[in-house]
């Protein structure tokens, strides 16, 4: 199938793009890497009047690394995060998680802003944002605002972005003393995950000072296992704690029953992966 007819715009300035969004609002679609939008256009599941191609905009493909984390411009390609040594030095989690998005050909086009704006509940990057308590910067013609991941993802393929706004940057903080781990299970390398986890752990004086467990592929959006995180806080991570954590994570989830896996399997898998991640982080911090 071919896309329904649309008007094509390729602005070279951000303000020009934002002005087009004000003009066309819901009738416009932003084209970034095109890895999700183009199939949707071809299948006519998306029928915008105007496609605003943002690939010529300048200033949205910078990466800034500080001791506190990484700020990534919306047009940075996923594959860059896999190989950039400066990013890996500050936030190795990013390279690990992003390397699981599709294949190199797909990652060469996929943008960080487009991936998050697409808000696929099985996507890796929203879980990275959730585990790092990161935020998204949205710009419109009159200014910009910062939005935490909890407010941004509101449902499957749905975000709190207003029609006249564009994602311009994403911040992935790296809290001091916290180590992160990313694990997913998919049928084949490059496939979307059946379930995945992005976890963080900070150990102080032999007990857990803070744990973070973000799960993807098991709900309508990325989800943080806040109860399980609280339960393990102030404890040593022994087999009893891990067993409770696996059960707690599995019990809180209501994943889809679909052709890829039954809900019960996804729940069990998510609990298992969360236990594996927290157990490994504990061992690493104690070593
Ligand atoms: C074979 C295949 C395998 C894949 N596997 C995975 C996978 O394992 N994990 C995964 O996460 N993804 C996967 N993807 C999806 C891919 O990573 C998507 O491209 C990505 O999610 C969207 O990024 P994009 O830059 O291509 O955005 P586009 O396709 O250009 O846009 C996607 C959506 O976001 C909007 N948008 C884009 N940029 C912005 C912006 N700056 N501000 C506001 N809205 C914006 C668009 O209007 C559109 O609605 C796969 C894709 C393919 C084709």
Structure description:
The chain is α+β, with helices and mostly antiparallel strands. Helix 10 runs antiparallel to helix 11 and helix 11 packs antiparallel against helix 12. It has a five-stranded antiparallel beta sheet with strand order 4-5-10-6-7. The protein is 37% helix and 26% strand. It has twelve helices and 14 strands. Helix 2 links the parallel strand 2 and strand 3.
Percentage of residues assigned to helices: 25-40%
Unreliable sequence segments: none
Strand content: 25-35%
Number of strands: 14
Largest beta-sheet characterization: 5 strands, antiparallel
Number of helices: 12
Termini separation: 56 Å
Question: Bound small molecules, which ones?
Answer: flavin-adenine dinucleotide
**Main structural class:** alpha+beta
Reading the helices and strands in chain order gives EHEHEEEHHHHHHEEHEEEEEEEHHH
Quaternary organisation: single chain
The overall average pLDDT, rounded, is 96
Radius of gyration: 19 Å
Biggest sheet: strands side by side, in what order? Answer: 4-5-10-6-7
Q: Give the overall silhouette.
A: globular
Top keywords for this entry?
single chain, 287 residues, four-stranded antiparallel sheet, 37% helix, 26% strand, binds flavin-adenine dinucleotide
Short description:
The chain has 287 residues and is α+β, with helices and mostly antiparallel strands. It has helices at 14-24, 37-42, 78-83, 85-90, 92-98, 104-109, 112-118, 124-131, 149-152, 226-232, 239-252, 263-286, and strands at residues 7-9, 28-31, 50-53, 63-66, 69-73, 135-140, 143-148, 153-155, 158-159, 166-173, 179-185, 195-204, 207-216, 223-224.
